Amino acid sequence: MAMEKVTVAGGGVLGSQIAFQSAYCGLDVTIWLRSEGSIGRTEPKLDRLLTDYLADIDAMEAALTEARETGEAVPAKVWALGIADTDDFDADACRERARHARESLKLELDLAAAVADADLVIESMAEQEEAKVEFFKRLAPLMPEKTIVVTNSSSLLPSKFTKWTGRPEKYLALHFANTIWHNNIAEVMAQDKTSPASFQAVVDFAASIRMQPLPVHKEKAGYLLNSMLIPFLFSGMDLYVNGVSDPESIDTAWVRGTGAPKGPFQILDTVGLVTALNIVEPYCKVPGFLAPYNFKGIRQMLKEKVDAGETGKAAGQGFYRY
Amino acid sequence: MAMEKVTVAGGGVLGSQIAFQSAYCGLDVTIWLRSEGSIGRTEPKLDRLLTDYLADIDAMEAALTEARETGEAVPAKVWALGIADTDDFDADACRERARHARESLKLELDLAAAVADADLVIESMAEQEEAKVEFFKRLAPLMPEKTIVVTNSSSLLPSKFTKWTGRPEKYLALHFANTIWHNNIAEVMAQDKTSPASFQAVVDFAASIRMQPLPVHKEKAGYLLNSMLIPFLFSGMDLYVNGVSDPESIDTAWVRGTGAPKGPFQILDTVGLVTALNIVEPYCKVPGFLAPYNFKGIRQMLKEKVDAGETGKAAGQGFYRY
């Protein structure tokens, strides 16, 4: 079953992007919002997304023209794979699709109306467990039988909400990265009651909105990326707090040794140290989990920097000065 | 104290490179070898290094000329920072230095003669504990008092050999990556008796042969790079052996999510699965170490691939086909 009618619940940073990208790919998209106030905050986000898409299409057109003249490859950074492939790029058609996406997006305050004929409902609300439970409770009786429902939650496991959806076999997680038209990966994660047919339908939906679907067959905190990124960041911080070396040398070892663009401390500065501190907290409470790392030392180090206002790149000072 | 006379013990892949690079940077370098047979194996390695340096200097000259014409940056891959900086590159002078390095390198079978006036002895022999102990025992009484001695060991902790060196405060580790004139990082690692002066002298020596010195103030198995790389590879393999996802999706999540050139399975294929299996073994024997990872599952998975001859990129088949 192809997904044609999509309802995104929540108009935050990612909710807006998911809705815009789905509409850009020709789907019939409704954003459900809680209040008139939410509409006032979401409309400008959608306007801004149209501006961003158009600016990126311009940049892609210019880069492709230059690449064809010089015979060089188009810089990967410029190209938004969510917008088009390099070998099948019609800038005017893309502009038209982006404008149509903005016009076609429907904002709706009535949840029953928003999901009345939805093939897919994408929950993309704030990361608050109780608010999500309330939402799924309200949503469950309103959806038609056909509807598949996914959560975009990053840190709360989807199984926390299964029973409130009323349709365990048609419920799973679909996790996007920020700026989805550039970072076009979508982790599709089952919980233990998800049916193979629903899983496949969501994989197909992700591909249909130009995402690279990454199948995650079992529930896993952190999906794929964070399951690797978090232990990696811990291993770097552990070297530092144990006095083995300094952030700059540790970053240099990683960057020079693996060819990666950033080492752990450069990534932490970008993510922000407040987020890092929130991630470390639970590990401090589970004795023996990831046993060799000095989590208490890591927490203390991060806390001192956060308390000093050195919270990362956005603050102008983290492990590095910006 | 500047290091002028350097003795490299061992003419293997890295020993040859360290000796050649040190001579390239103008130092007085002797390679100590165990036998006439070793001389026969080492001479061609040094000839080959001269050829490689000269070819790289040609490539750098061509790339720099092109970059100056187009206004583009020189591709990082082409540039060997161990040979020269981009903004201070005299190709002819570099060629002359490389030829002089090859001519000036002394090969010596007599250990006493080889180290009689050495400022620095670099142990770069096979990774066999007993052979290294024997070497340090022989070496200890032959060195003048001024000599600092370092081990290039990757997997054996330097403290295993401290007592055999006869000079704990002047003994530490200096760890290079392969193709040191390109991968010009050098991890300088103290053991707990190393004096600050010796540590600094080796940091300065590394810089003097155009390496980026990475200080490792405390003994740490894996130095900096492998202390991060190994847990990272485990986290990726753990996702696979627990049925969470497949190697290709896991690699895609990492590459797309972080901008790195390779994901864990692409790195494992390059390193080789036999090496990976050897690294996993000890973790299987320490219950609770890096507790959350399924080491037995990881070992079993690697063993099956190794037994099937699918040992990585060099074999044409690892997690991917080449």
Automatic annotation (TrEMBL), chains A, B:
Domain 3-hydroxyacyl-CoA dehydrogenase C-terminal: 222-322
Signal peptide: none
UniProt keyword Kinase present: no
UniProt-listed SUPFAM superfamilies: 6-phosphogluconate dehydrogenase C-terminal domain-like, NAD(P)-binding Rossmann-fold domains
GO molecular function: (3S)-3-hydroxyacyl-CoA dehydrogenase (NAD+) activity
Alphabetical list of Pfam families matching this protein: 3HCDH (PF00725), 3HCDH_N (PF02737)
InterPro entries for the chain: 3-OHacyl-CoA_DH, 3-OHacyl-CoA_DH_NAD-bd, 3HC_DH_C, 6-PGluconate_DH-like_C_sf, 6PGD_dom2, Mito_3-hydroxyacyl-CoA_DH, NAD(P)-bd_dom_sf
Key words of the record: Fatty acid metabolism, Lipid metabolism, NAD, Oxidoreductase
Reactions it catalyzes: a (3S)-3-hydroxyacyl-CoA + NAD(+) = a 3-oxoacyl-CoA + NADH + H(+)
Domain 3-hydroxyacyl-CoA dehydrogenase NAD binding: 63-218
Enzyme Commission designation: 1.1.1.35
Pathway the protein contributes to: Lipid metabolism; fatty acid beta-oxidation; Lipid metabolism; butanoate metabolism
PANTHER family: HYDROXYACYL-COENZYME A DEHYDROGENASE, MITOCHONDRIAL (PTHR43561:SF3), PTHR43561
This protein's name: 3-hydroxyacyl-CoA dehydrogenase
Species this chain originates from: Kribbibacterium absianum
